[in-house]
Design brief:
Blueprint: E1 2-9, E2 21-28, H1 31-39, E3 47-49, E4 56-58, E5 62-69, E6 74-79, E7 83-89, H2 94-103, H3 122-125, E8 128-129, E9 132-133, E10 138-145, E11 151-155, E12 176-186, H4 198-203, H5 210-224, E13 232-236, E14 242-244, H6 245-254, E15 260-262, E16 268-271, H7 273-279, E17 286-287, E18 290-292, E19 299-302, H8 308-326, E20 335-337
Parallel strand pairs: 2-5, 3-5, 4-20
Antiparallel strand pairs: 1-2, 6-7, 7-12, 8-9, 10-11, 10-12, 13-19, 14-16, 15-16, 17-18, 18-19
Bound molecules: flavin-adenine dinucleotide.
Length: about 350
């Protein structure tokens, strides 16, 4: 099914719940429909591939084309001794895929319960939570190349996954549209309960089962993170900054409790953006319709009726104050368009 719409309202398509319109909106439910659209010369210079809009801030109306791959379906496509291969369409809700994997008693995705968004976006930033990253279970990514109009496939290795990173965020940004993802899930689950309070929460249910892990993750997330259905937000607004080791050491000497983590890159340390913002006194701050969540300094919220420009203005103030206090430049994690 194809829909091509003009001046399309995107309020329901972004979890920040910003009211903004797209000049054109193209929705399709099969890869061949996108290929046909490309053959007909439908792709303008200015376009954006939209999933669930949970990592997105619409600064203004979008004066271009939104490509919305609403491809449904989850099905088994293969099996080996220890694994089942499940293919899910780009338009499937990520948490629906996780729910189904747990119902089918397949291990791997349970720690990633309740992450908002669609399956098609999961490889883009290699979604992760509670010690697990999607890359550990992604076998193959199928896509359409926007330049050649051909179907293409990427093995796990070719996706070049990193921490909240992949080839789709870099060399292939705006070059391909992911149409489905094949996951390699465990017939004999190995639980990963090392992260934070997860084990204690699972233990409350007695037995360690996939369903109990999923339920525990959901409980923890619901207690900590604002539900976009109730209060508009885009998750972590800023990336955790990665700085030279000597910069991190200097800051650690000055601010004794400052969290710092290995970055996986030589001579670089990762700092916690939320902690830096909290130290500048922003947690719980409110300014008109926008604010900083009271539990999570990294999450900016729309209390209702906020414009994208208001969110950007608050983000800019936060950025400047962190820069003044720590000399660190925060970069947005959310995609800002419009
Ligand atoms: C409350 C909340 C909690 C969150 N918690 C987490 C968390 O724990 N861990 C985590 O990793 N993330 C988290 N996020 C961020 C977000 O859920 C993920 O980044 C998610 O993968 C985004 O999915 P989406 O479908 O909404 O993508 P969108 O926001 O629509 O798009 C994100 C990016 O992916 C691209 N994209 C989307 N679909 C496709 C496609 N089919 N082909 C090519 N490119 C595409 C877009 O162009 C854009 O660059 C959270 C967000 C919120 C609001």
């Amino acid at each position: 099914m194809i829909r091509l719409l003009d001046n399309y309202d995107l309020t329901a398509y972004n979890t920040f719940r910003i009211r903004a319109k797209a000049k054109k909106f193209f929705e399709f439910t099969e890869p061949d429909e996108l290929i046909f659209f490309l053959q007909e010369g439908g792709l303008p210079g200015n376009f954006f591939v939209l999933g669930g809009g949970s990592n997105l801030l619409l600064k203004n109306d979008f004066n271009g084309l939104i490509i919305y791959p609403n491809i449904p379906g989850v099905g088994e496509v293969g099996e080996d001794r220890n694994h089942i291969f499940l293919e899910a369409g780009a338009g499937v809700e990520w948490d629906e895929l996780v729910r189904l994997s747990v119902v089918f008693e397949l291990g791997g995705l349970e720690n990633l319960s309740l992450i908002p968004g669609k399956v098609g976006a999961a490889p883009v930033q290699n979604v992760g939570a509670y010690g697990v990253e999607a890359k550990e279970y992604i076998h193959l990514v199928r896509a359409v190349d926007l330049q050649t109009g051909q179907k293409v496939e990427f093995t796990n290795e070719q996706c070049r996954f990193g921490y909240r990173d992949s080839i789709f965020k870099n060399e292939l940004k705006n070059k391909v549209v992911i149409t489905s993802v094949v996951f390699k899930l465990d017939k004999f689950p190995e639980y990963n309960l090392e992260y934070g309070a997860l084990k204690a929460e699972v233990d409350k249910a007695g037995e360690t089962t996939l369903q109990n892990v999923r339920d525990a993750v959901i409980r923890i997330r619901e207690a900590k993170l604002p539900d976009p259905e109730k209060i508009g937000n885009g998750g972590s607004f800023f990336k955790n900054p990665v700085v030279n080791d000597d910069v991190a050491k200097k800051l650690k000497d000055e601010y004794k409790g400052m969290p710092a983590y290995p970055s996986g890159i030589d001579d670089k340390t990762k700092l916690a953006a939320g902690w830096l913002i909290d130290q500048c006194g922003w947690k719980g701050y409110r300014e008109g319709n926008v604010g900083v969540h009271s539990e999570q300094a990294l999450v900016l919220v729309n209390y209702g009726g906020a414009t994208g420009a208001e969110v950007v203005a608050l983000a800019e103030k936060i950025k400047q104050s962190v820069n003044r206090k720590f000399g660190i430049e925060l970069m947005p994690e959310v995609n800002i368009i419009g």
